[in-house]
Amino acid sequence: MKHSVITPLAAIFVAALLSNALVLPNAHALSIWPTSVDGQTMPSLAPMLDKATPAVVSIAVKGTRKVKQNTPDIFRFFNNPNKNPNQVQQRPFKGLGSGVIINAKKGYIVTNNHVINNADEIMITLKDGRQIKAKKLGSDADSDIALLQIDANNLTEIKIADSDKLRVGDFAVAIGSPFGLGQTVTSGIVSALGRSGLDIENYEDFIQTDAAINSGNSGGALVNLRGELIGINTAIIGPNGGNIGIGFAIPSNMMNNLTKQIIEYGEVHRGILGVSGRSVNSDIAKAMQLDTNQGGFIEQVIPDSAADEAGIKPGDVIIKINGKKVKTFHELRGKIGSMGAGKKVDLTIVRNGNEQNFTVKLKQSQSSNIVAADIHSMFSGAKLENNSKNNGVLIKEVADGSAAQMIGLQAKDVIMAINRTRINNIAELRSYIKDKKGVFALNIIRNGYTQYLMIR
Questions:
Q1: Which among 149, 316, 403, 441 could disulfide-bond with 377, CB atoms 3.0 to 4.6 Å apart, if both were Cys?
Q2: Exactly one of 58, 114, 215, 279 is catalytic; which is it?
Q3: Domains of the chain, earliest start first
Q4: Known active-site residue 144
């Protein structure tokens, strides 16, 4: 594994990894730490952990995975010349991870999807040593959340905090079973919030922490100093999967939204807004004359979508969801993607320099209509005509595989403006783009609807 690789904390057996890897502190050094200073008891996390750690469990899984076996031609010839060289075989596997009890009465345990994916047997080990088989109630691979259930008495559940109230610098404690060692506690701070664009999951809105987490911590708890759950540990950046102080956790609010849907429906009924766009940056802010350098810039509103029905328009910038700020389009996508279909969401947008509030009722779809755009070139390959009555530039044709097609232009699109500058004809279009660099916010009309394409 290369350095600085983002690695899901998938559970593994680690006997080989542990050999010659543990360095224990000198016993004498441990004995010199004072229990009090000037008569004042030293602060300790122990009272909080006494309440929180019984809610964190170890998970061991067994199962089979499909593995494609490539047979060299020479061996295929001697065995069976007609045999498929890329045959698929079932291979057994074992894995370890962590989980968190979120409902003691029902026996609900939340963990990562990648911990229990393809598992035929899931065994839970409680802090008191009890081992109990669990059943999978449902999971969501796009957000890496899974919900399990066990039948047991005297369980301890963890209290779930409002992760939207977290601040960078808040103390955080990670609890899990790294490297199969058994329950382990490490501490640190919240290093960053709203981390996204890491390509770990389809829906990302991670808490970043420097609390030491490693392989086997997947599905474990990230808690605050009150012992409340603020996140589910999921991934790290580190050489060879080892901790270097950059770990990521799924926020408790996202987890809570998703598990509630699994409990109710047996699966995630993901709500969608029905827009496409990108994160606001300084270039977009300058091109669109925005007063903010953060938020989700809306390039397109899907016809008849939740956003369309609520009155959201291309060119709007979404800066808040339910009163909470969003810094990037990825963060917007992650938060919306964890909310269930039919949920009402309050959005604060900036339009023409003014803040406006909209209430949107999310719709359901098998796939999200919230996508990130990636545009790099201009109009090569497009046949342009002046639209009737000097009213914009008509895209008559777009060649397959051309730069114009790559940036998203389609036949019958009408270019109306660039960077809020009205474009009436081809001459004005050529004049505007001549010798200009940076981001171009291309305002077009397609099928009767206005949208933006961002061209770099």
A1: 403
A2: 114
A3: 5-11+158-255 (2.40.10.10), 45-149 (2.40.10.10), 271-371 (2.30.42.10), 382-455 (2.30.42.10)
A4: yes
